[in-house]
Structures are given as C-alpha cells and as structure tokens.
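Take a careful look at the sequence and tokenised backbone pasted below. I need to know what the token row says about the fold.
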Amino acid sequence: MKLYVRQSGQHGNGVFAADSIREGEPIIVFSGPVLHRSEVDFNGYHLQIGQTLYLGPSGVVDDYINHSCQPNSGFRDGLTLFALRDIATHEELTWDYSTAIDEEDFSGFPCACGAPDCRGLVRSFRHLPADVQLRLRPLLLPYLRDLYFPR
C-alpha cells in the first residue's frame, strides 16, 4: 500500500492514499514501542492500546493519520486500519481517535475534521453519548470492546 505524508487541510501533516483503496482493504498496521502510561509523552504522538498501555511514535506514516468524526478507515480486531469505504487516490486517510482513547482524565481537544456530523470535541470513548458508543462499537480497539461490550 502506497501512502504518503503531506500538509493536511485539517491539521498539520496528514496521510494520503497514493492509489485508490477499496472498501474493506487493509491499509496499515500501527506500530511503535509499547509503553506504560508512565512512560508516555502526552505532548507527542501516542496510541492507547490498553488500559495502561500505549504505542509510542513509530517514525513512519501511521504517526500522521488524522482524526475524523466521519472517518474513511477504522480498526477491526487489532491494530490494522481498514478502509470503511472506497478511498480515492490522493484522499486523506482518517480514523476516529475515540475508538482508541479511554482515559478518565482526558478532557478532549477541539475537533477540526469538518465532517457534517462533527462532534466538535475529540473525547475518550467513555465520555461519548451511548448512541455514538454503539455506532463506534465495530471500530473499537480490542481492549475497549472487551471493556465496554464483553461477550
């Protein structure tokens, strides 16, 4: 999969598709050093993967994929990002950050995604309304699905 980083109209740098991506196609596996919460630089890139575990920066394109309240990609049973719909050549890739964040003390940050159904604030999954939680359920990282929707 060819992806590239360039300036995003939404926020800082973003990741874009060099070729079209079909719905359901795997896009990228997130990587980076596994860190305990006490080791995380919360001013830099990090991805929560467990209640106290995070991925630190990988140094590759997964560090630059921006949030959207109406994303074109999402997680399915792990750290692999999949296309939720067909993605056009040169379209920016996005995923919903709330499908990974579950920090009780996370106050959120303003959302700049520009989606028609923008929530206005990127928040922890636990702080989302119940209807939004249900809609995001299929896209949750496994630790969140197990925590909020045990089988």
User: Anything to note?
Assistant: The chain has a mean pLDDT of 94. The CA atoms of residues 27 and 146 lie 24 Å apart. The chain has two helices and twelve strands. The two ends are 34 Å apart (CA to CA).
